[in-house]
Design a protein that fits this description.
Number of domains: 2
CATH architecture of the largest domain: 3-Layer(aba) Sandwich
Protein name: 3-hydroxybutyrate dehydrogenase
Structural class: alpha/beta
Keywords: Oxidoreductase
EC number: 1.1.1.30
GO molecular function: 3-hydroxybutyrate dehydrogenase activity
Largest sheet: 7 strands, parallel
Organism: Frigidibacter albus
Strand order of the largest sheet: 3-2-1-4-5-6-9
Radius of gyration: 18 Å
Number of helices: 8
Helix content: 40-55%
Number of strands: 9
Length: 261
């Protein structure tokens, strides 16, 4: 059997992919030849233009489909509207920080719905398509917080631990099929959202950019360097390749050593 890293002829659906990590993953999958479906809940002209630009840049079919990942019916409709779904990347997520006794119930419900339950709905809808195609990859974007914890992030940590466990179950249920399911656990990734926080942190702590990054933002990341969205995308592309055909049920850390501590 010839080994290939090309994803030509495959269709990838990436939830929460109009910015940040999701967009980085979509771009790298397109670079590898996959047709891509971008998703968010905003449905703006910019969203559709972004998909068109990716298609033009990489010579693939790229579409945008609006779906609210807090709603199970929307999650399943996204997969149905995509038509094919050879690669599913469950990336959509939100965050809120508060102590357990003060954590707003509505925020807890939203985080669990978007960060965890959405992956159940999209995966349940995608697996029949993958089985019909005779090949599939499910990749769930978890977090270093899927393997460890931090205070004041109860809902996020619970959801990300749940994603890691869910990935293992799907892997076991598809173990004898040409379908794999893994979770990727990033530490701090340099996204536009993170980048925008650096100037305020510089003022708050009276530090240089480099000091803020190393001493404040990356205090728990031993490499003292951000992962990049391109690295996240490359990890996903590898998991989709023939080289990773026997990697399933695994949580892959891309965290600069965070979970090695």
């Amino acid at each position: 059997m010839s080994i290939t890293t090309s994803l030509a002829g495959k269709t990838a659906v990436i939830t929460g992919s109009n910015s940040g990590i999701g967009l980085g993953i979509a771009r790298e999958l397109a670079r590898a030849g996959a047709d891509v479906v971008l998703n968010s809940f905003t449905d703006s002209a910019e969203d559709h233009a972004l998909a068109a630009s990716i298609g033009a840049e990489f010579g693939v079919t790229a579409r945008y489909i609006c779906a609210d990942m807090s709603k199970g019916d929307d999650c399943r409709a996204l997969i149905e509207q995509a038509g094919a779904c050879d690669i599913l990347v469950n990336n959509a997520g939100i965050q809120h920080v508060a102590s357990v006794d003060e954590f707003p119930t509505a925020k807890w419900d939203a985080i669990i719905a978007i960060n965890l339950t959405s992956a159940f709905h999209t995966t349940a809808a995608a697996l029949p398509k993958m089985r019909a195609a005779g090949w599939g990859r499910v990749i769930n974007i978890a977090s270093a917080h899927g393997l460890t914890a931090s205070p004041y992030k109860s809902a996020y940590v619970a959801a990300k631990h749940g994603i890691v466990g869910f990935s293992k179950v799907v892997a076991l249920e598809t173990a004898e099929e040409p379908i794999t399911c893994n979770s990727v656990c990033p530490g701090y990734v340099l996204t536009p959202l993170v980048e925008s926080q650096i100037p305020d942190q510089m003022k708050t702590h009276s530090m240089s950019r480099e000091e803020v990054i190393k001493k404040v933002m990356l205090d728990r990341q031993p490499s003292r360097a951000f992962a990049t969205v391109e690295q996240m995308g490359g990890t996903v592309v590898f998991l989709c390749s023939d080289y990773a055909a026997q990697i399933t049920g695994t949580a892959i850390s891309v965290d600069g050593g965070w979970t090695a501590l």
